[in-house]
From TrEMBL:
GO molecular function annotations of the record: tRNA (guanine(37)-N1)-methyltransferase activity
Catalysed reactions, as listed in the record: guanosine(37) in tRNA + S-adenosyl-L-methionine = N(1)-methylguanosine(37) in tRNA + S-adenosyl-L-homocysteine + H(+)
Residues bound to S-adenosyl-L-methionine: H265, D303, L304, D332, G333, N367
Protein's UniProt name: tRNA (guanine(37)-N1)-methyltransferase
Length: 478
């Protein structure tokens, strides 16, 4: 055994010498153009990175043809019938990305590219026992050597390409929101000089992307959509996107849509039961309303932006929602509650005398975080004028009120502000952190049942007739 091993080691060193002297005979170095030879790198950590090309100035163009580079990689050539055997012996030593290539000179041959950090073309020992045995058994000793691999624009990721193009000190954009065929960026001031190139690279590197836009200035104050400019691709802002199996179509330049809210939409819809009543006060294009209706809730949804309303209606159809389960409105939130919702609550309370589902619950969704707390002023005395005999049948709505807080104790801050508008304490409120929208600014959702004295505009003692059963039981908000 010891003898065999010594023999093997002797053999290795002989082979090593052979390979060293023959290295340049392998895989046709003659076919590499002189200009590319000058760019050869070997065994350096960043040999796989693109060449460093600097965009000289504002408006610097993206020239994809400049992204060419040839590197030398250790490799083994073999008859393609041996592919499986070769992979078995050498796969652990191969490069991670596309290790198996066609031979440029012989259609019957394949080339396995090896990781230059593990294998050195002038040292056969670096192939390891399995690799050497493979070479020996198939007489492939002369086919181990350097392989000139040409890398081009399509071989690098957007991050690598942009890193090579943007000057030092300008960070590569780390991400973007994807809305159907649109990428939405929020570039930093120092990146703006390179905005078109950034847009083009992202479009090249993300299949299906046809439009790249950048947020300009602040969000539109009233309807919450972003002002944006086109960076690359076609100027088509009408897009279709999916959220948890539901399709939404809209004009991204005219309505609010934020893919970062998808988890929140699902969380709220997850709290709803079939048969629940849902009033969506700031419905947008329907990311709460559509899945809620699809789940079997009775939905009334409104948005003041005529464009949102138009697409909300479109999305009801697109998702084949039974028109009996959803009604849509183009109203101001307060008007929606004071008129439509009020009437609906009263009608349902009156009907509860004959039909009553004890599990049915009523929800009001208020996703306009910058203002929703102020809009809570619609609830005090909303049902003051209804007969006391009907009050016991009103399902007190659970409100899901979105808001922002910049305070250290965000939960206390939002609860205090809500109670101030209602002039009443809210028991059992559930405060949920939705996301950080900026450093020290949290978006939250507070779910609570509107207290009976608030909605009926009277003291607890005067709420119900003496003969009446106690009001709706206190129930969970989640
Ligand atoms: C933050 S977006 C939320 C949209 C949708 N609910 C979502 O989760 O994506 C707020 C929506 O409120 C609408 N809006 C703004 N002011 C309004 C008002 N006074 N009454 C009704 N809707 C309003 C905007 O048009 C926008 O669609």
């Amino acid at each position: 055994m010891a003898f065999c091993l010594t023999l093997r080691m002797k053999c290795f060193s002989q082979l090593t010498r052979i390979y060293s002297s023959n290295a340049s005979n392998f895989v046709g170095l003659h076919c590499i153009p002189a200009i590319a030879m000058a760019t050869f790198q070997k065994n350096t950590g960043d040999m796989f990175l693109p060449p460093v090309l600097t965009l000289a100035d504002e408006g610097g163009m993206l020239n994809r043809d400049l992204f060419v580079k040839t590197i030398l990689l250790p490799a083994v050539r073999f008859n393609k019938k041996l592919t499986n055997t070769c992979l078995k012996a050498l796969k652990p030593k191969a490069v991670a990305h596309k290790p198996l290539r066609n031979s440029p000179s012989d259609p019957e041959e394949k080339v396995l590219l090896l990781n230059p950090e593990i294998v050195s073309s002038d040292n056969v020992i670096s192939l390891g026992e399995a690799g050497i045995t493979f070479l020996e058994e198939h007489n492939l000793e002369s086919k181990f050597g350097d392989f000139p691999l040409e890398l081009k624009y399509s071989d690098w990721t957007s991050d690598e390409v942009l890193r090579s193009l943007l000057p030092k000190g300008v960070e590569v954009p780390t991400g973007f929101s994807r809305i159907g065929h649109i990428a939405h960026l929020n570039l930093r001031p120092e990146q703006l000089k390179y905005k078109h190139v950034i847009g083009e690279v992202l479009m090249d590197k993300n299949p299906g992307l046809k439009t790249v836009v950048n947020k300009t200035g602040e969000i539109n104050n009233e309807f919450r959509f972003f002002n944006m400019e086109l960076l690359a691709g076609e100027n088509n802002m009408i897009t279709t996107t999916k959220e948890h199996g539901h399709s939404f179509e809209f004009d991204f330049s005219k309505v609010y849509w934020n893919p970062r809210l998808s988890t929140e939409h699902t969380r709220i819809v997850g709290m709803l039961n079939k048969g629940d009543i849902v009033y969506d006060m700031f419905a947008g294009v329907g990311p709460f309303a559509v899945p809620a209706a699809k789940k079997g809730c009775s939905v009334l949804a409104s948005d003041l932006n005529p464009e949102s309303f138009k697409w909300l209606e479109r999305n009801v159809k697109l998702n084949k929602i039974n028109t009996g389960s959803i009604r849509t409105y183009n109203l101001d939130g307060r008007e929606f509650i004071r008129d439509i919702v009020r009437k609906d609550l009263v009608k349902r309370a009156e009907e509860q005398n004959t039909c009553c589902d004890p599990h049915q619950r009523t929800h009001v969704i208020m996703n306009l975080p910058s203002l929703a707390i102020e809009f809570l002023d619609v609830f005090p005395s909303l049902l003051q004028s209804i007969p006391t005999g009907v009050r016991g049948h009103v399902q007190l709505p659970t409100v899901h009120c979105y808001c922002f807080s910049k305070e250290v104790d965000t939960a206390s801050d939002v609860l205090r502000r809500i109670e101030a508008v209602l002039s009443h304490s809210i028991e059992g409120a559930l405060v949920h952190d939705v996301r950080d929208v900026a450093p020290n600014k949290e978006m939250m959702c507070v779910s609570f049942k509107v207290p009976a004295p608030v909605i009926f505009g009277c003291s607890t003692e005067d709420l119900y007739e003496a003969t009446e059963a106690p009001p709706v039981k206190k129930s969970r908000t989640e």
